[in-house]
Queue: 2 jobs
Job 1
Amino acid sequence: ARPRVGYFFTGKAVDTLISEKITDIKVDEIKATPVIVKESTSVYDAIVTLFLTDVGTLFVSDDEGNLQGIVSRKDLLKTAIGNTNTHQIPIGVVMTRMPNIVTVTPEESAYEAARKIVDHQVDALPVVKAVIENGQEKYKIVGKVTKTTITKLFVELGKN
Amino acid sequence: ARPRVGYFFTGKAVDTLISEKITDIKVDEIKATPVIVKESTSVYDAIVTLFLTDVGTLFVSDDEGNLQGIVSRKDLLKTAIGNTNTHQIPIGVVMTRMPNIVTVTPEESAYEAARKIVDHQVDALPVVKAVIENGQEKYKIVGKVTKTTITKLFVELGKN
């Protein structure tokens, strides 16, 4: 059932087909649901949220759902190990803040999202849509792409 | 340069080619270097090691390099948040212990490793070789496969 001869089955052609497939898949098709908290959330409550929702990264937004920050397990671990009272530290103090966050748009490819994760050594990217509010550019959080998202996609591609 | 006609270029055939490629890549080709600590290491020192080596998971072995346990960022976070003295808690107390660890062998495929990561909801798998020592089956740690490994492989596949 798998002919191993002929022009199309050289390594080169197969690699090109795979590359095409991977760059054809859009972030919009694979994005997962982000867990979003407020900047005033305590580090303690953020850690509890992390465990209850079974995620590795929390996103921080204002009341309008605009991206303000991102908090990783390591950010929380760094804070938890040095402080006895994580109830009194707001995550706004420990999060990575805009504009220092690597983001992706729904129109970008799965390949581009994975490349950003690898190049910037992050676990997760917020999927955002740029909007103008009161003359300022804001980024609405509409999803996330994480190493888990990419690993699941890899399994899907291998399944056939 | 990319002929779009002919039998081999139906969606079905492309998916089969991708699946073949992904299952042809062996764990041995993609495995990364694991960071290994001893069971007596304190939770505090384990957290410091995690930051210094820039990894997300630590593996625990005996003096012969046999797998005993695995410690995630969440295991450490759970311990750090509830305890003021992480210097006095050995990671042996908080780690996941054999035989409750999902492992992979160098001969298994990248697809199989990714499937185990997704199905068991873990961040990392130790790559092990089974050996018999004093009549007991032991597992030598020879590498690791993580969500990062799979994400990097995904980027490689998309690059062509």
Note: The longest strand of chain A covers residues 136-146.
Job 2
Amino acid sequence: MLNFNFYNPTEIFFGENQIAEITKAIPKNAKVIVVYGGGSIKKNGIYDQVSQALRDFTWGEFAGIEPNPTYQTCMKAVAKIKQEGFDYILAVGGGSVIDGSKFIAAAANFSGEPWDILSKGAEISSALPIGVVLTLPATGSESNSFSVVSNSETHDKLPFASIEVQPKFAVLDPQVMKTLPQRQLTNGVVDAFVHTMEQYLTYSVDAKVQDRFAEGLLMTLMEEGPKLVSESVDYKVRANVMWSATMALNGLIGAGVPQDWATHMIGHEITAVYGLDHAQTLAIILPRMMAEQKETKRDKLLQYAERVLGLDIADEDSAIATAIELTEQFFHSVNMKTRLADYDIGEDAVNKITEQLERHGMTALGEHQAVTLEKSRNIIRASI
Amino acid sequence: MLNFNFYNPTEIFFGENQIAEITKAIPKNAKVIVVYGGGSIKKNGIYDQVSQALRDFTWGEFAGIEPNPTYQTCMKAVAKIKQEGFDYILAVGGGSVIDGSKFIAAAANFSGEPWDILSKGAEISSALPIGVVLTLPATGSESNSFSVVSNSETHDKLPFASIEVQPKFAVLDPQVMKTLPQRQLTNGVVDAFVHTMEQYLTYSVDAKVQDRFAEGLLMTLMEEGPKLVSESVDYKVRANVMWSATMALNGLIGAGVPQDWATHMIGHEITAVYGLDHAQTLAIILPRMMAEQKETKRDKLLQYAERVLGLDIADEDSAIATAIELTEQFFHSVNMKTRLADYDIGEDAVNKITEQLERHGMTALGEHQAVTLEKSRNIIRASI
């Protein structure tokens, strides 16, 4: 096991009717700005529940955080916060709303040029406190310190991280998933699955707890994911997927182990250029990444084949090939496509995405920095 | 899955040479009291590492917290703290030192009679901050809000819990286990194993993540435990056991599931009356509890048999019997005894322990409150 620090101070309120708990979790004298997305929360009743819980608070709202939240939109929220003196952000939404809120929280307190937070990794010394009402389980952003924000003008999609922007609390009520479109449920399952794989499918450092926890999440998502996108889904399935998605990226399974994230880096560029959903890009790249990195990941691929998929691994190469195939089949089982061509993207992606990777310095990706630009090019070509 | 709140704000510093990190984790202007036990930390170099890290702090010390820390000893520390104005506790030790430090931290700020915290569940509104250097992995006390303190005069052993006494940070350096006596290593493995079982072996609420995480801990402890008590143990084994013990009782695997704790309640009384180590009592009671509660725990016993022990469960009763037998064998494999008679305790325990349980109101224990006094009596009799 590698040395690690693990610190996750987000308080979780999990279960039915937990939205009312925000009343206790937000300081009484806070001036709250509710940040949300395209307005679906007004149709599914979540906005009403939040309004009801905030009835004794002073509060306002900022709507319109887009999927892949943009720097431009976030800065409009920052202007409103500064003008009206809000001092607490309540993010009501999925990963995009939460990621956007994290940037807003940091930028609102930042004395320099906020774009530097993303472009230069400028240090954040304080941020507005954030609470979360999660409406879409997927990214884990509700209980971690990471954020990814896009620049709509330059097509950059850049990450930042700071403990200052980690949510103080997150409400996870599986009932909010009832009204989600199937595409978002599918995205959530795939996103959580690939988050887990990025922290698991590397090389062994004999970290048995982390391995078994990751395997537990993968098995749960493989069992529950297909049920979630079926007609007769029940509360238990939603609850299991929601908790898996949070646990997949709250720092726990990645503590003390090597991490990969090459699939994410290539996926981010596909989203930036072609506008695919984040999870859609992951489902395309991961199977090809597994195949391309078969040798560097051999031991963990076999462990995955045996423990998660229950395969006989006597014939190693055959077991690995089957494991990759079953992974792609799992994506299909939750109605996720796994080829660029499924989105009418062809050969031109090979150069375009490789150039983007080069421009962002992504020339040695993965846990061994073994995914060179040439290998990324091969992976993208194989993904068409 | 049941509704739950999960909040664990303890920062973990895990790995070799992490004791130096306390320099960053304790506020610079703190006046630190180092609380420890019988002085083994002076022989194994940990006291020296802590002294070195604290060289720029104002600090003092309180030694002599005993195994099963007593109210009487803790109150001596409280007197010293009040007299000399310490405002930060650094607990250097195992579960007893940490549990004692939690009571000291609460009592130092308590305006009433501190015994009421234990005897009447008096509410704690503040406590001194606590940091931990863990020297013995076992109880999980380093990252939870629980404490158990004994009264040496009345033979009461009573728990309390408050987020106010949860450690701000905990240093987990597996190297500290190098010099531990085998008895303490054995105790640690068994303690962590039974903590996990108390939160796992109940009835299913279809909480798949929690179940798989618990199973991961049980499997890890069963694999690594016997290695830990052998001659040629290496760092990896120590690290896996240490992290398992923390994860076994930091609130995570118990969030959203029913919990048992009947084995602990009976075990506490055995320690109070006969002075056995906490883990020794658990290893005696758990196999008998499993047998006695075979019907109420049937589904989970079968799940344990199949997933953790890899048994064929076609013949259910036979699988359950084998699972109980293998659990007891596991205790033996880490050199832990599993009978009262192994400690020269005989028939008189049946009445004595049952009377203690009655005196403390422990008349309906377990996840179904199905362990009546009569059943406890049967369990104790079967444990001889």
Note: Chain A has a mean pLDDT of 96.
